[in-house]
Amino acid sequence: MTDLTDQVAIVTGASRGIGRATALLLAMQGAKVVCVARSADELEEVAHKTRGLAIPADVSDADDAQNVADEALRHFGRLDILVCNAGVGSFNLLEHFSATEWDRMFDVNVKGTFLLCKAVVPHFKAQRSGHIVGIASDVARRTFEHGTAYGASKFAQDAVLASLRKEVRPHGVKVSTIYPGLVDTYFNDSLPGSPDAEKTHLKPSDVAQAVRYVLEAPAHVVVDELMLHPLTQEW
């Protein structure tokens, strides 16, 4: 298994939910974590627990995204892992979506992934190592009512990661994609911990364990896709 000790990992959307669980777990495995999110107060709390670096940023802003990579390199002197987890969602009939809602989902879910990857890939290629893990969704592989905007953004994010995987593999860089089903988080303004969610949803820690699994796979093992099934909590 690959040792995560002292590897430097950027985790976006680290203030809550999947990102927070991932940041905490990677820190427990010895990684040095760069916690990225827009909410500075919650981010500082996570960074304190991980003994890592907090960088408040909007991943959909090109300058912010580049600054995250630059600050991580300045602070730690190296960069090994990028977990693209930041995401937003809204669900409604197509005719009830506003253009603003559509743009925000594509800005965060797709453009945010693109910009962070763009910021770290040159460094990863130069050192001939690095691992990008994208937290997509099972709706990147299926469609459902009220999911036109969110589903489209996740299909697009999946395409970005799949194409990038082919571009960087010859340079010794890995790209893995995780497709969780329903996860019990604050996503879509919901509150975690309801009795129903306990029965039907994954926990953020389940997804974090999947991230750990792909990161710790031996160098010669490539895990391109990992689907998480919420009803059975198996993967």
TrEMBL record:
SUPFAM superfamilies: NAD(P)-binding Rossmann-fold domains. GO terms for molecular function: oxidoreductase activity. CDD domains: SDR_c (cd05233). Signal peptide: none annotated. It comes from the Bacteria. InterPro entries: NAD(P)-bd_dom_sf, SDR_fam. The keyword Oxidoreductase applies. Keywords: NADP, Oxidoreductase. Belongs to the short-chain dehydrogenases/reductases (SDR) family. This is NADP-dependent 3-hydroxy acid dehydrogenase YdfG. It comes from Hymenobacter psychrotolerans DSM 18569.
